[in-house]
Amino acid sequence: MNILAEKRIVLGVTGGIAVYKAVEIVSRLVKAEADVRVLMTEAAQKFVSPLTFGAMSGHQPITDLWQLYEGERIGHVTLAHEADLFIIAPLTAHTMARLAQGMANDPITATALSTRAPLLLAPAMESNMWMHPATQANLKTLIERGAKIVGPESGRLASGASGVGRMVEPAIIVEHARIILGKTRGPLSGLRLTITAGGTREWVDPVRFMGNRASGKMGVALARVARDLGAEVNLVYGAMTVDPPIGVNQIHAERAEDMLREVLRLLPETDVLISAAAIADFRPAITHRQKLKKGGNEEIRLERTPDVLKAVSEKRKEINMPKLVVGFAAETTELIANAQAKMRKKELDMIVVNDVTAPDAGFGVDTNRVTIITRDGAVAPLPLMSKEDVAYNILHRIRGLLGTPSIGWDPGMGSVLS
Ligand code: CTP
Questions:
Q1: Ligand 1 contact via 275 beta carbon (within 6 Å)
Q2: Residue 250 CB coordination number (10 Å)
Q3: In angstroms, what is the span from residue 261 Cα to ligand 1's centroid?
Q4: Does residue 1 fall inside a structural domain?
Q5: What is the number of the ligand 1 atom nearest to the C-alpha of 308?
Q6: Same domain for 239 and 137
Q7: Which atom of ligand 1 is nearest to the CA of 306?
Q8: Measured in angstroms, how far is the CA atom of residue 107 from the centroid of ligand 1?
Q9: Which residues are CB-neighbours of 242 under 8 A, at least 6 positions away?
Q10: Which of 132, 147, 181 is at the close of a domain?
Q11: Which residue has the CA at smallest separation from atom 21 of ligand 1?
Q12: Is residue 418 in a domain?
């Protein structure tokens, strides 16, 4: 699943030391199969040659207002009309001022003025320039007009001094590109999802806990893909080996009880709940305030934790939300029968089952091999695929169950389901 595939992304590059990082933005976008076109100011060309951007994007950059585009039309006008997204990175204080003024005397400002595509800006400049009231006023103007600004960050600047002014990393800019495209083009826009991810921890004493092998990768993939498809996402996460994605509402919940509280709190504003977290079934009956010592009472008595999905099914009867509840089943034997029993017991609309004994699926790895079972009795085994593609297939099926037409849903984006 890839929201960037075949999207026309126009990247404006203005003159600052961070121009070299713009090459990485192009490289990341091209890898994600976007169709990237570069515009450069004269100052930008002092830092990196247009040749580099041309080689990376596969298209000659536009460096002159009067340059014809692929030998035919006026470059900036054509690109302005065809763009799905217009990124300017790095954005200097000077170009920022000209954007705010609505000037159009170079390819970048002229394109910004004539495009209706969303604008993503990554400023980079010296701290004093950034903090100057003139720049701050321009920033305010651009935000009010709907531009998305990322950064700048604090850190070491070209002058050798430290302060705010560094362009954010290319990976973050590309994440924001995905978020913006999802919001404007995504087939899940308007849908509110709550996803749980990772593993819970139940404390024995101040230094020891009972945890599990969950990495959070499946839940994070679901959150990221749902976000890219335009959904509003709450990610309730426990212990994970990966970072929660930007652009989602991140809520940390450590114990089963914390997860229960947060999920129930979010339920009235949740259209779809996906419980991908490995939630503990047991916890120590007593959490000791001091570290347990050898030679004392060495037994740990366990008690049951609350079952989050069971509590959700009770609450759902009362408030009629969420519209759909999806569970996961981590099984080692009789996968389908056990998952079907779990779906009935927890009153789920869908359950995603995986064999956690398989080395290439389940805990910790980047791939998964799952079967999607729905309440209507359909059993759909999927082949081994990346967790992001599994997420895409789950969300595709959810969209089908909700019964809304799949406007903008491109079946070629990775789905193997009809
Ligand atoms: N789950 C939950 N609350 C718990 C334990 C699990 O809501 N206390 C959810 C999980 O997030 C998952 C589903 O229930 O979506 C099934 O989890 P799983 O661990 O496979 O099943 P259990 O209910 O724990 O049953 P068992 O351990 O007996 O297989």
A1: yes
A2: 15
A3: 16
A4: no
A5: 7
A6: no
A7: 8
A8: 56
A9: 215, 216, 217, 220
A10: 181
A11: 329
A12: no
What atom of ligand 1 comes closest to residue 351's alpha carbon? 15
Catalytic residue among 138, 212, 354, 368: 212
Model's pTM, two decimal places? 0.86
Instruction: Evaluate: CB of 279 within 6 angstroms of ligand 1.
Output: yes
Whether ligand 1 lies within 6 angstroms of the CB of 327 is answered as: yes
Q: Quote the domain boundaries for residue 148.
A: 8-181
- Joined together, the tokens standing for residue 175 give 């994440």
212 part of the active site: yes
For 353-381, the DSSP string reads: EEETTSTTSSTTSSEE-EEEEETTS-EEE
202 and 102 in a common domain: no
**Is the separation of the CB atoms in 256 and 198 below 8 Å?**
no
Residue 256: CB within 6 Å of ligand 1?
yes
Ligand 1 pocket residue status of 305, Cβ below 6 Å: yes
The residue among 147, 181, 215 that closes a domain is 181
The answer to whether the beta carbons of residues 36 and 29 sit under 8 Å apart is yes
Phi, psi of 164 (to 5 degrees): -80, 140
Do residue 218 and residue 314 come from a single domain?
yes
Helix, strand, coil % (nearest 5) of the chain? 35, 25, 40
Instruction: Please report, in tens digits, the pLDDT of each residue of the chain (418 residues total).
Output: 688 988 999 999 999 999 999 999 999 999 999 999 999 999 999 999 999 999 999 999 999 887 656 655 666 678 888 999 999 999 999 999 999 999 998 999 999 999 999 999 999 999 999 999 999 999 999 999 999 999 999 988 777 788 899 999 999 999 999 999 988 778 898 899 999 999 999 999 999 999 999 999 999 999 999 999 999 999 999 999 999 999 999 999 999 999 999 999 999 999 999 999 999 999 999 999 998 888 887 889 999 999 999 999 999 999 999 999 999 998 888 999 999 999 999 999 999 998 887 877 767 788 889 999 999 999 999 999 999 999 999 999 999 999 865 444 444 444 444 3
Pocket test for ligand 1, best of 235, 257, 279, 324 (most atoms within 8 A of CB): 279
Could you tell me the distance, in angstroms and rounded to a whole number, from the CA of residue 418 to the centre of ligand 1? 28
Question: Ligand 1 pocket, 277 CB below 6 A?
Answer: yes
